[in-house]
What does this fold into?
Amino acid sequence: MKVLVINASPKLERSNTLNVTRAFVSGFPEGTEVEQVDIYSKDIKPCKGCFACWASNDGTCAIKDDMADIIAKIKAADIIIESFPLYFYGMPSQLKAMTDRCLALAEPYMGTRSDDGQTFNKMRDNSIFEKKFVVISSCGYVELEPVYPALLAQYDLICGGRDKYTAILCPMGEVFMTGKAKRQIRVYLDDVKKAGAEYCENNFKISSETIRKLQIPILSPEGFATLTGSHQNEGGWAASRFGN
Ligand SMILES: Cc1cc2nc3c(=O)[nH]c(=O)nc-3n(C[C@H](O)[C@H](O)[C@H](O)COP(=O)(O)O)c2cc1C
It folds into this structure.
């Protein structure tokens, strides 16, 4: 089994999210081949919108940069894990650039599904639908519900439904870089590792109970505020020690 981890944090190895992703993959069976690509250290130019990929027979892109290599890795992987921070309720810019460039994987055909009216692209190679897709993201806010709906709606549309991918979302991502709350972090990451094992044992699905468990914030809002030097203010949180 080949796993491709697409690390889309500009902080590269210092990514908060990568702690969660590594724990998840550590639950996979022995012998699993894992490759990590740090897309912020790759040359991925924005899509020019020229549709040269659609005009070509095999989806060759007009831009010559590292994206051809990434597409080859996506094609070779059985499981693709995108690991990234939430930026302005969505994906960070380099991941959006990478996603746009994946137009090369689609055929120049847009249709509408008869059951729910959603638009879709035909893909050049239907084996892409056999791949398993996991989104792992952390955010700075203390709760998930107010900040993730737009990102999830986007992935629902890209993947063709919530049941077509697995999402592991982690609030209070900044807790990982504080160097504190070690016991709580260990307990949380141990649950993530168990979720990785469950995912592989359970035909690449995680129960809604496990998902719910992983969405419980690692600390109380007050504990998180103390560690990050934040304080509650006019109904919100003023963060002062985020990042390093
Ligand atoms: C430009 C920028 C935009 C952000 N936007 C959000 C946001 O919309 N909601 C949120 O909860 N956190 C937001 N954050 C916080 C990050 O999602 C959070 O720090 C995350 O844990 C960083 O993950 P990483 O270390 O893997 O990059 C933002 C951070 C930055 C730098």
The pocket of flavin mononucleotide is lined by residues 9, 11, 15-17, 85-89, 138-141, 147, 173-174 (CB under 6 Å).
